[in-house]
Design a protein that fits this description.
2 domains; 4-stranded parallel β-sheet; Tumour Suppressor Smad4; Rossmann fold; alpha+beta; 10-stranded antiparallel β-sheet; about 290 residues; globular; 14 strands
Length: about 290
């Protein structure tokens, strides 16, 4: 089986050449049959993967959660498997891989949101405003480790609550709130452990709704989230379901695994065992050892 490494040149930037060389060397150590692909303005990830749709390959997303999302949306419904080499800003999905996934093949649920899919976390409201803030995210003058934290501070100061209509099971809620986080995985925002009980193949999504309506309440929620105690917050509702809908009067930007999606309505449903995620622990170990040198 061929191993296809798709590099996100936009997030890797100056590190691209080094990552290409290290992965080539590591693949050769394991005698993998591999191909290197690099996205660009003229050759998107989606364009690259069109030629593999009728094949059976392992497609590695080399970068962060964003390129993994694009790989998944490109290969869903094909015979290809998905893998990842964490090299992005957040790498939140990779944190869950280390805790949850076995070596080799792992069947994984996806969550369909309108006409897109995500594997880890989707966020709406303040969460999405932070993740989609192009003036901060991927800003070359802000260290990658600080981007999300700076975004949080900025959006606390300009916070205004959203009025969402939400539907799940037989329940309908119209309420002002700060954010809604829809989880298949466990981590988001560069390491926040939003969903410690998350399981990738249980046919369910876990939703955290923060009903904060002012800065004080929002700060309280974020502090408790940082401590892993957001379950105890009196203005948080935790929902476990297989379908969830968010409706807003005007079009807003949600964020699905690092990729923005604009709509007035976000209809989400779990797709059980939708893809095979291939966990190549030996390859990751070799790559990490080489990167440390």
């Amino acid at each position: 089986m061929k191993h296809i490494f798709v590099f996100n040149s936009f997030s890797l930037r100056k590190r691209l050449k080094n990552y290409v060389e290290v992965i080539k060397e590591s693949a050769e150590v394991l005698k993998l049959d591999y191909i290197i692909e690099i996205n660009s303005d003229n050759n998107s990830t989606e364009d690259i993967l069109k030629k593999y749709k009728k094949k059976s390959c392992i497609i590695y997303a080399v970068g962060g959660d964003g390129i993994l999302n694009r790989v998944i949306n490109s290969i869903y419904g094909t015979k290809n498997k998905v893998a990842c080499i964490p090299a992005g800003t957040g790498n939140d999905f990779n944190r869950s891989i280390n805790e949850f996934f076995d070596e080799g093949d792992n069947y994984v649920d996806l969550i369909k949101c309108n006409n897109k899919y995500f594997v880890n976390v989707a966020c709406f409201g303040v969460d999405a405003d932070i993740a989609n803030d192009k003036k901060i995210v991927h800003n070359k003058f802000i260290p990658r480790s600080l981007q999300y934290k700076i975004g949080v501070i900025k959006h606390i100061f300009i916070f205004k609550p959203y009025l969402f209509k939400m539907k799940w099971s037989k329940k309908i809620v119209n309420k002002k709130l700060a954010l809604v986080t829809v989880c298949n995985g466990g981590y988001y925002g560069g390491g926040f452990h939003i969903n410690p009980n998350g399981i990738y193949n249980d046919g369910k999504m876990e939703v955290f709704i923060s009903y904060a309506t002012n800065r004080r309440e929002l700060i309280k929620y974020l502090i408790m989230l940082l401590k892993g105690k957001h379950f105890e917050c009196d203005q948080v509702e935790h929902v476990v379901t297989d379908k969830f809908t968010i409706i807003n009067e005007t079009e807003i930007e949600g964020n699905l695994d690092g990729e923005s999606l604009e709509s007035k309505v976000f209809e989400m449903s779990v797709v059980p065992n939708a893809i095979i995620f291939y966990n190549n622990k030996e390859l990751i170990r070799i790559i990490n050892n080489k990167l440390r040198k």
